[in-house]
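User: I'll paste a sequence; please echo it back and then give the predicted structure.

Assistant: Echoing your sequence first, then the prediction.
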Amino acid sequence: MPTLFDDVLNTPQPWSQQVIAEWRDVFPAQHGASLDDFVVREYRRRNALMDMRSVVGQSDHYAGQSWRDAALAPQYKPGKMRAVFAQYERNPDYYFNGELDNGIVLSSIDGHDWYTDGGGNHRTVLAKFACDRIARRTGRYPLVRGVSTCHYEPDMQAWRLFCQLRQRHAQLISVAVTREDRQRTDVAGATDISWRLRFFVLDRRFGGIGIPRAGHLDAACFCAYARHVLAHDGKPSWRDRVLDRLIGDPDRLVYQSVA
């Protein structure tokens, strides 16, 4: 019977020509911060079931290659790739009976597209081909058992507004973001971690020789502040300038707050 490697070599599938995406591109760093700084929740699971069609990329290793090239001409540790194909022939149930034992670590920010991040890059490549061949033979796409997953949830609204504010008005407005009030909940096979975002804003738009306005804001208030500034193209409105004169406390920012 032809081996799995023979099948990859002789029966190329359209999906296998797709380029393996890079996990680092999912967490861009720009304007003095990374999307990673805006993560407000991590949900980790052990020994999960995974549809390998949902895996679209990796962290380094084979990223940039097609899935087929990663199997046939791997740019990272080719000997290790050959070894995992040989292991599959000796124990083809390894990926489906729980023996994998969290040997593939996957991450996602949307719960839909997954990336190998933290272990099992070569196993991921093989598992995608093994599952595809089984599906072509049986008509049923199998799930891999024993995967470790981490679903990151960033505050995308705050991230987008932060980037817009820094891109357009960095000369007059400084923003720093931190995560605080870490909460962790552990249940059988899962860990849920959450944070609150806290922003420190220094606003020098009102000019003069006075002290710049500054404030510590939660995520909702920061988004309201950023939307207010962006809506006026960074220029204080007449109302803003009146409030600037009326509000003597420099530790208060001038903006249309949330209701």
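The chain has a mean pLDDT of 94. The radius of gyration is 25 Å.
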